[in-house]
Amino acid sequence: MHYAFQSLVLLLLAGAVGCAPAAEPTNAPAIRIVASDWGRAQPDEIEAVVRSAAAVLGDLVERRAPLAIVVQPAAEHPEVEYEKNARGEYVMALSARDRRWAQFAYQFGHEWCHILANFDHRVSANGEPLNQYQWFEEVLCETAALFTLRTLASRWQSAPPYPHWKNYAPWFADYADAMLAADHRSHAQLQVLSSWYAENGEVLARDPYERRRNDFCAAALLPLFESDASQWNALRYLNLEHAAAEPTFAGYLARWQATVPEKHRHFVATIAAAFARKNVADEAAPQLSSTTHVSLQ
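The structure assignment produced for this chain is given below.
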C-alpha cells in the first residue's frame, strides 16, 4: 500500500485519538516517548503503537527484571544505545515519522529484540565489545521485526490499541510482505543456510550490518519461529556467559544451547544444524547434544 494514501487515511482516522485505548499489554516494558519532531504523529499515538509492538515478544519472553525504554527520533538510522541513561532507561532512536505505524512497529520490534537478546552483554571477560557474531543477533532481530509485523496484522483485527484503528491492521501485513518479496530474500530456506553460511560467514564476521545478507537469513529463519512462537523465549539467553568470546560460531551457538532451558535446546540445536557445514569433519567443533555434531567456522 502506498504511504501517500496511507497517510491520508491515517489523518482521517486518527482524529479520535482521545478515545480510550485498549488495555495495556501486561508484559510490555515501561515506555516513554520523547516529545519531539515526529512529523504528524503525536507521542501518545506512537506510544500506543510501540506498546502494542513490544507486547508481541514481551508476551513470549520471560523477563528477569522490569525494563524501561525511552524512545526518541533518530537523526539517521534506528538504534538502541549500549549505555542506559541516568534514569536507567534504554535509549532507543527510531527514524520512522508521521503516522507510518507499520514502520514504527518494524523498527521498534528490531531494536526491542536487541535488548531482549542481551546485546549489552556481547563483551569479553574484560568488558570489551565483541562483534564477530553480532551479525547473527542482527538476523534474529530482523526475524523478530517481521514476526512482530505479521502478529500485529492479526492482533489489530480484533484488539487494536484504539477501536477505530482496526482498519490499520492490513498495513502491517503489507509492510512485511513487501520486504519478504524483495529479490534478495527470494529462495531463502532453512535448507540452504549451510552453503549460504559457508559463502558469507567471513564477510558477516567483519561487518554485522550487511543488510542484504542478514535479510536473506532472517527470511529463512522466520518460518521456524512462526511454527513455534514459544521458542522466542530462547532469545533471552543469547550472549550470556561471555558467549561472544567463543573462538568459533559453533561454540557461540553451543554456549547459547547450553544456557537455555531444556525446552529450548532442541530448537537451538536445529538452528545450529542449519548453519553446519555438511560432510566436513571438524574436531574442534563442540557437541551440541548427544546426537548432533555441527562443524562451523
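Interim note for the steering committee: Confidence is low (pLDDT under 50) at residues 1-25, 279-297. The chain is about 45% helix and 5% strand.
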